[in-house]
Design goal:
CATH superfamily of one domain: FAD/NAD(P)-binding domain
CATH class of one domain: Alpha Beta
Order of helices and strands: EHEEHHEHEEHEEEEEHEEEEEEHEEEH
Shape: globular
Radius of gyration: 22 Å
Structural class: alpha/beta
Mean pLDDT: 94
Number of helices: 8
Bound molecules: flavin-adenine dinucleotide
Largest sheet: 10 strands, mixed
CATH architecture of one domain: 3-Layer(bba) Sandwich
């Protein structure tokens, strides 16, 4: 199997295929987690907000994966307390939060991290200077935080321990489909004089190129079907102030969208936005309007930081969600991962579009199942729901 892209999905499929006993080559043109998998909100979460859009299956699967990762990767995935303040003018009312959080706990199977409640008024003063003007309730619940890049590196390391081979830098160029296999052309080495063209044959090609997946699918001959998808940009800011009492799930006063304020390596990280993106994915960067939007949310909820302006931003990054193309607001569109094969029986190519960091293992297992009819019988070496993940050196 050739897997293109060492983001969380490519890493996951490489691990699953190697664990199933297959021979795997993982190609990455830049660095492990160079794409969206180092630019996420870094949450391993069920996604409370996906309850609103009715994606119960996704929330249940994500909560199951969260509980598994808390066990398999305790150094990389940790439970955090989230606070949800409800003011007189907050769109989501206290009863809605109660219903949502009860359902969240139910879908989590009342396992570790399912506890939630409301914080007594006397403890509101301990919430990092959260505005109490018009504050009616503060709910808390739990979700998990990770270092997305470190998690992806740990999954690649696990795949390598099972025999997968990583080539990096190695850039996929094109593929030609035969009746029973695929010829893959790629170049290794840095761009320019040192690059070396190579070819290899594989039973299956996995297109896990994230925001580049659509372009990659179009470089396959004969042409395969490509779903209607588009990229939506999400930005985060880092600010040199500290959140000492947990994470905050805030509702943007401007449009009601959910915005997270999170502690991150001694700083505050706030995000995300959702802006349609057209262009070269490598060039995605936070726009000035997004910086103002996020600083506006922070100032609204934490008046003590109202003096922070764009020049105080100590770091920022943007990533791209691949979503089904549509007219409605990106916020309401499906976050389910789309797995697309070139043909139902004996597929030669499987492309992964969209998805969540949280569900990488479950998605990888599904992807492997979809291409199983094209792969030779092998004796499995391990089960991915039992493989511990440990940080690579320097990621601890
Ligand atoms: C702003 C934002 C916040 C998010 N927050 C969360 C969150 O908190 N929790 C959560 O569960 N999910 C979150 N997600 C979703 C999650 O981050 C993504 O679904 C996931 O990281 C996508 O991983 P991927 O492997 O599909 O793509 P990527 O991580 O983008 O990986 C694709 C890789 O392919 C490589 N590549 C591309 N073309 C080639 C080529 N020709 N040859 C070789 N290599 C190539 C790229 O260099 C890249 O490394 C968020 C997404 C965004 C955009």
């Amino acid at each position: 199997m050739v897997v293109v892209g060492a983001g969380i999905h490519g890493a996951g499929v490489a691990q699953a295929a190697a664990a199933a006993g297959h021979s795997v080559l993982l190609l990455e043109r830049n660095a492990i987690a160079a794409g969206t998998s180092s630019r996420s909100s870094k949450l391993i979460h069920g996604g409370l907000r996906y309850l609103e859009s009715g994606h119960l299956h996704l929330v249940r699967e994500s909560l199951h994966e969260r509980s598994l990762l808390l066990r398999l990767a305790p150094e990389l995935v940790q439970l955090r307390r989230f606070h949800v303040p409800i003011y007189a003018n907050t769109r989501r009312r206290p009863w809605q939060l109660c219903v949502g959080l009860s359902l969240y706990a139910l879908l989590a199977g009342f396992r570790r991290g399912a506890g939630w409640g409301s914080l007594p008024r006397r403890r509101w003063q301990q919430l990092d200077g959260l505005s109490t003007d018009g504050l009616q309730k503060v709910y808390y619940y739990h979700d998990a935080q990770t270092d997305d890049r470190a998690l992806t590196r740990a999954v690649v390391r696990s795949a390598q321990n099972l025999g997968a081979r990583l080539e990096c830098p190695a850039c996929f160029v094109s593929a030609t489909l035969g009746e029973r296999d695929v010829e893959v052309c790629y170049v290794t080495g840095e761009n320019g004089a040192h690059s070396v063209p190579r070819t290899c044959r594989a039973r299956v090609l996995i297109n896990a190129a994230g925001p580049w997946a659509e372009a990659l699918a179009r470089s396959i001959a004969p042409a395969i079907s490509v779903p209607a998808v588009e990229c939506v940009q999400g930005s985060h800011l880092l600010l040199p102030v500290e959140l000492r009492h947990g994470c905050y799930y805030l509702e943007s006063p401007r449009d009601g969208r959910a915005v997270f304020a999170l502690p991150w390596h001694g700083q505050l990280m706030i995000g995300t936005t959702e802006t349609r993106f057209r262009g070269e994915p490598a060039e995605v960067a936070p726009a000035a309007a997004e910086v103002h939007y996020l600083l506006g949310v922070l100032e609204h909820y934490f008046p003590r930081w109202r003096t922070l302006g764009p020049s105080d931003v100590s770091g920022s990054f943007a990533g791209l969600r691949v979503l089904p193309r549509g007219h409605g607001h990106a916020f309401h569109r499906s976050r389910e991962t789309l797995l697309v094969v070139d043909r139902a029986h004996r597929p030669r190519v499987l492309s992964i579009y969209g998805g969540k960091l949280t569900t990488w293992r479950a998605v990888a297992a599904r992807a492997l199942q979809r291409v199983a009819s094209s792969l030779p019988a092998r004796r499995a070496l391990a089960r991915t729901d039992r493989l511990a993940l440990v940080p690579a050196e320097g990621d601890g």
